[in-house]
Amino acid sequence: MAIQARNSKGAMMQKRRFVGSEFVVATEYWHVLGDGRLQCDLCPRYCKLRDGQQGLCFVRARQGDEIVLTSYGRSSGFCVDPIEKKPLNHFLPGTAVLSFGTAGCNLACKYCQNWDMSKSREMATLADRATPGMLADAAQELGCHSVAYTYNDPVIFLEYAVDTASACQEQGIKSVAVTAGYICEEPRKEFFHDMDAANIDLKAFSEEFYYKLTGGHLQPVLDTLRYVRHETDVWLEITTLVIPGYNDSDRELDAMTRWVVKELGPDVPMHFSAFHPDWKMMDVPSTPPASLARARTIAMENGVRYAYTGNVHDSDGQSTYCHSCGTKLIGRDGYELSTWQLSDDGHCKTCATRCAGVFDGPPGDWGARRMPVRLSAMT
Question: Which domains does the chain have, with CATH numbers?
Answer without folding.
Answer: 74-314+355-373 (3.20.20.70)
